[in-house]
């Protein structure tokens, strides 16, 4: 998005009365958040809430995408090397493997008939990001370097074996890897590793499971680099899936996809070969059958795990967040354009209405996480808190190592926009420590509630971070889906901005 001083002034000048009112209320401790937030946080969250709420001026999908996917260029303490994986050939077993798992999970969950759009294969684009030391925020990347040269510079400054496969946020229809270089550069710096940031296909033009196919393709491309890729094969034991918001949903869905592929393989095979690779499922990738291992772990930042937005914190914690509530979005809409409404029509930007509760669309609905690698959650006291806590508790109950960090009074993906806070630095430090530990050592389950301002830590039990039962969650999400897909035969064909 345009971020020049003149553009920021044009945005903020009309809001001067609102800004002054907010500042005075905070200074006089008249705001209910003044005890938890500093003035900068108060202004940032409340201006965002005002911009994204029911008073927001309607816009079109294509205009939003044009604004939020503009490449800002490379500068500052990052190296960036762009890569592209070729499209799979006519056999395209990777695509068929994804579609088979989507179908199997639909059937295994015993839900009503679900439909989705089968995606085509396409070349995959991504960026390698690494930390660049010894420069200031305005230093441009050196001119006349090839992408291979840039990747070589990334490797020169890499000090650990961590490779982060990153999926950016943006509600599945906004943003781009290029707009996340400050985040992925910080992750590379903190971990000492490198980050592979994927340009997955955006909805509504490419609905579920197109982005999931891209995510799976990216993982295979790290494990088994296609011809022309700059990197050597990366062992699965050195790869951590990571993402924020909708990107957290995508990497969690990718994990559930891999678990389903493993479950299906274990059910259908009677192999007795003693080699480890023979016990893994395989897929034909770039003309060769290759094993599909699980990654070292997942590092999730405020993951969006329930596309119906149905659990209690969606409303009960809205006072700490800037996202619009479901009630606020009911009267919001998009200006029609070539991207939306879709043809044929559907109720949701990301998926068909019938698939809203599919466990690869809403990972909150996935019941089986057994065998998963360790998972790190960093969440605010935000609107998505309950869905994240339910999944973390369910994973823990099934033997998965879970690290839970909950930051008092912090909004959605707070570290990316409130970098001045000590909580933001703590978030990146804890996330990086997890990534290094799952690659280089071991992880044990733990949970902490981290106080605002003081950053005092309070130990918790992962099994006690939520009291919501699976039955309550299912009932709430079913009602949420029914409110989106009306049961009287009149589909709500005007999709609402969800996140």
UniProtKB/TrEMBL annotation:
It holds the Pfam family Abhydrolase_3. Residues 164-415 form the Alpha/beta hydrolase fold-3 domain. GO terms for molecular function: hydrolase activity. InterPro entries: AB_hydrolase_3 (IPR013094), AB_hydrolase_fold (IPR029058), GDXG_lipolytic_enzyme (IPR050300), Lipase_GDXG_put_SER_AS (IPR033140). It comes from the Eukaryota. Belongs to the 'GDXG' lipolytic enzyme family. This is Acetyl-hydrolase.
């Amino acid at each position: 998005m345009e971020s020049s001083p003149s553009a920021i002034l044009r945005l903020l000048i009309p809001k001067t009365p609102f800004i002054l009112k907010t500042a005075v209320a905070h200074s006089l401790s008249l705001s209910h958040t003044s005890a938890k937030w500093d003035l900068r946080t108060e202004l940032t969250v409340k201006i965002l809430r005002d911009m994204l709420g029911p008073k927001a001026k309607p816009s079109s999908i294509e205009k939003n995408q044009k604004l939020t996917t503009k490449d800002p260029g490379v500068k500052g303490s990052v190296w960036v090397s762009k890569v592209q994986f070729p499209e799979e050939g006519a056999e395209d077993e990777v695509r068929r493997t994804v579609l088979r798992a989507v179908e199997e999970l639909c059937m295994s969950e015993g839900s009503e008939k679900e439909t989705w759009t089968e995606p085509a294969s396409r070349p995959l684009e991504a960026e390698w990001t690494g930390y660049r030391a010894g420069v200031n925020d305005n230093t441009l990347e050196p001119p006349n370097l090839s992408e291979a040269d840039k990747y070589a510079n990334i490797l020169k400054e890499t000090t650990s074996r961590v490779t982060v496969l990153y999926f950016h946020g943006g509600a599945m229809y906004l943003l781009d890897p290029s707009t996340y270089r400050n985040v992925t550069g910080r992750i590379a710096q903190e971990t000492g590793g490198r980050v592979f940031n994927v340009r997955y296909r955006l909805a509504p033009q490419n609905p579920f499971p197109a982005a999931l196919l891209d995510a799976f393709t990216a993982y295979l491309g790290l494990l088994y680099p296609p011809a022309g890729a700059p990197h050597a094969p990366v062992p699965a034991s050195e790869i951590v899936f990571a993402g924020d918001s909708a990107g957290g949903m995508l990497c969690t869905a990718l994990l559930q996809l891999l678990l389903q592929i493993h479950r299906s393989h274990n059910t259908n095979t009677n192999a007795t070969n003693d080699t480890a690779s023979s016990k893994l499922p395989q897929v034909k990738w770039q003309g060769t059958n290759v094993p599909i291992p699980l990654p070292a772990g997942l590092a999730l930042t405020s993951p969006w795990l329930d596309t119906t937005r149905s659990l209690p914190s969606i409303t009960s914690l809205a006072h700490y967040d800037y996202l619009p509530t479901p009630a606020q979005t009911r009267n919001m809409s998009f200006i029609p354009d070539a991207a939306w409404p879709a043809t044929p029509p559907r109720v949701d930007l990301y998926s068909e209405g019938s698939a809203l509760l599919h466990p690869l669309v809403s990972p909150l609905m996935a019941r089986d996480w057994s065998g998963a690698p360790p998972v790190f959650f960093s969440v605010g006291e935000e609107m998505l808190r309950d869905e994240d806590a339910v999944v973390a508790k369910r994973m823990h109950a099934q033997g998965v190592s879970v690290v839970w960090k909950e930051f008092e009074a912090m909004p959605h993906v707070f570290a990316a926009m409130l970098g001045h806070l000590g909580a933001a630095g703590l978030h990146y430090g804890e996330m990086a420590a997890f990534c290094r530990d799952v690659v280089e050592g071991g992880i044990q389950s733990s949970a902490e509630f981290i106080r605002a301002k003081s950053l005092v830590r309070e130990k918790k039990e992962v099994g006690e971070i939520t009291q919501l039962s699976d039955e309550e969650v299912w009932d709430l999400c079913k009602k949420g889906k029914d409110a989106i897909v009306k049961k009287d035969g009149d589909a709500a064909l005007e999709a609402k901005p969800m996140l």
